[in-house]
Amino acid sequence: YDVVIGLEIHVQLNTRSKIFSSDPVAFAAEPNTQISPITLAYPGTLPKLNREVVNLGLRMALACRSTVTTLQRFDRKNYFYPDLPKGYQLTQDHSPLCRGGYLSVPTRSRSFKVELEKIHMEEDAGKSIHKENAEESLVDFNRAGVPLLEIVTRPVIGSSEDAASVLAEVRKLVRYLHISDGNMEEGSLRCDANVSIKPKGTTALGRKVEIKNLNSIRNLSHAIDYDVDRQIELAEA
């Protein structure tokens, strides 16, 4: 079987305030202290785009040789999360910041190129806290509205090792460009992996499985390997 992998990498941007409000961005602040009526989406409040988010996004677009979209807008992505105050996420679903481009990824043995689908801006959700044996969950909205760049690769990565190298290269690049601190242990860099298999010699892509919110390069590699084995076992059965 051939393994086919695409990555969706979420980068928290180095801004002092959130993407649509002046609420501060601070890691490990007391719960629900970095919020306001705008973050909590009170009736009558309106978002205003943070100029610095656009500047940092353009810096990444240029570094990836992407084509910047001249007319941009945000869309409502509707889904229910208890920690999503609006009941939808503001994201660039149909008109991303930029399309195309690529990343050059060096490894010890070779260098390879990964084509990008798009890079877009969006807001983060809050955080649900599930304490062991508790009868209820807690919600911290501090992270709601924190600015993110989502970097979406095309499904062109062929192994867990290459996927790990791509994520490591993105972390190095965003730090070099001063876009993000890239600290995965603090959630500043997170990754979703879309994984599928197909019989060798065929061109049709298999059914993909999305593995969400991987928070380390090692976890990304292990999760892909585990799911590839699982998918092959299902295919053989």
Descriptive notes:
The chain is an alpha+beta fold. Helices cover about 20% and strands about 30% of the residues. Strands 1, 2, 5, 6, 7, 10, 11 and 12 form an eight-stranded antiparallel β-sheet that branches. The longest helix has 20 residues, at about 215-235. The radius of gyration is 19 Å and the shape is globular.
Question: Could you give a quick summary of the protein structure above?
Answer:
The protein has 237 residues and is α+β, with helices and mostly antiparallel strands. The protein is built from three helices and twelve strands, in the order E-H-E-E-E-E-E-E-E-E-E-H-E-E-H. The protein has helices spanning 51-63, 160-176, 217-236; strands at residues 2-12, 67-68, 75-78, 88-91, 98-99, 102-106, 111-123, 127-129, 138-140, 147-153, 189-198, 209-214.
What attributes characterize this protein structure?
two-stranded antiparallel ribbon, 237 residues, 3 helices, alpha+beta, 8-stranded antiparallel beta sheet
What's the layout of helices and strands?
Elements: E1 2-12, H1 51-63, E2 67-68, E3 75-78, E4 88-91, E5 98-99, E6 102-106, E7 111-123, E8 127-129, E9 138-140, E10 147-153, H2 160-176, E11 189-198, E12 209-214, H3 217-236
Antiparallel strand pairs: 1-10, 1-11, 2-5, 3-4, 5-7, 6-7, 7-10, 8-9, 11-12
